From TrEMBL:
Keyword presence, Transferase: yes
UniProt keyword terms in alphabetical order: Transferase
GO molecular function: transferase activity
Cited InterPro entries: Amdntrnsf_FN0238
Keyword Transferase: yes
Superkingdom, taxonomy of origin: Bacteria
Name of protein: Amidinotransferase
């Protein structure tokens, strides 16, 4: 996780991220302080659950307003693999940090780092686990097509990391593609949350539903209103007492009693207050870059 010291909704990403909202009515210093406090509290809640958290600081010196969302620029994978991604917005390219990769090499067993960031010069982008939602068990990379998820880069990544790409088209109420897959989809161990109403092709939506069902998961549909509340932007984590589903308070409040019941068959819900950070168009899932590497030393795993 990244704790930002100069957080603000990024005007550079607002054109295609319709989940963003303006902070115009709040002083910049107050917004930045609130975001800092939200990340601090979220990290403490996760640690209290027995989840190992690596918390890095971003002082804002490099003008990185979206640094609180590290899952977009790198991902980690079993077997010791790391991917570094090409980012659509120039300001987001400055978020990549060698010190984070070096920490992973020190603390975990890393075999290789594949860096796709050079594809930015060719206008080819793939924003990590924002653009792709992984089914690690069935080896499927679910991907909503957008200018942040180029099909060439997706194919290249999928070949290197042994995923089957499963792409689909989406649209919001204004007909614009959803900017990131992870705001409409969460794949956990025994269930999946999916905003099927955003799919433009009902047949493709059915194929995605069938594929998730075949993997043995309970497929829980989210409606458009719940997607707007970031109910799809959740992440399953391994805690001291079992699996937890981390999501925002706003997302938690949007769930129905039936959805609560189905989720809590296999994971305990863990709501976090990140209302300031959500102004930037992302929520709890975007704030966490999961670690799927083997630790060099014994201890709790992230």
């Amino acid at each position: 996780m990244i704790r930002p010291h100069a957080f603000t909704p990024n005007p550079e990403t607002a054109a295609d991220n319709t989940f963003q909202s303006s902070a115009a009515q709040r002083a910049a210093q107050a917004v930045a302080r609130a975001a800092w406090e939200e990340v601090t509290a979220a990290a403490q809640r996760l640690q209290a659950e027995g989840i190992r958290v690596h918390l890095f600081e971003d002082t804002g010196e490099n003008d990185t307003p979206d640094s609180v969302f590290p899952n977009n620029w790198f991902s980690t994978h079993p077997g010791g693999h790391i991917a570094i991604y090409p980012m659509y917005s120039p300001s987001r390219r400055r978020e990549r940090r060698a010190d984070i990769i070096e920490m992973l090499k020190r603390e975990y067993r890393v075999q290789d780092v594949i860096d796709y960031s050079g594809l930015e010069a060719d206008g080819l982008f793939l924003e990590g686990t924002g653009a792709m939602v992984f089914d690690h068990l069935a080896r499927v990379a679910y991907t909503a097509r957008s200018n942040r998820a180029d099909p060439i880069t997706l194919e290249r990544f999928s070949t290197h990391f042994n995923f089957e790409p499963m792409a689909f088209d989406t649209a919001d109420e204004a007909g614009r593609p959803i900017y990131h897959t992870n705001v409409l989809m969460c794949v956990a161990t025994e269930f999946a949350l999916v905003g099927f109403d955003t799919f433009t092709d009902p047949a493709r939506a059915g194929e995605v539903r069938d594929r998730l069902t075949e993997s043995g998961r309970d497929v829980i549909a989210l409606d458009t209103a719940q997607i707007k509340e970031f109910a799809g932007n959740a992440i399953e984590l391994s805690g001291r007492d079992g699996r937890v589903l981390a999501l925002s308070q706003r997302a938690y409040d949007s769930l129905t009693p039936d959805q609560f019941r189905r989720i809590e068959r296999s994971a305990r819900l863990l709501p976090l207050d990140v209302s300031t950070i959500e102004m930037a168009g992302g929520s709890v899932r975007c704030m966490i870059a999961g670690i799927h590497l083997s630790a060099r030393h014994q201890g709790p795993q992230a």
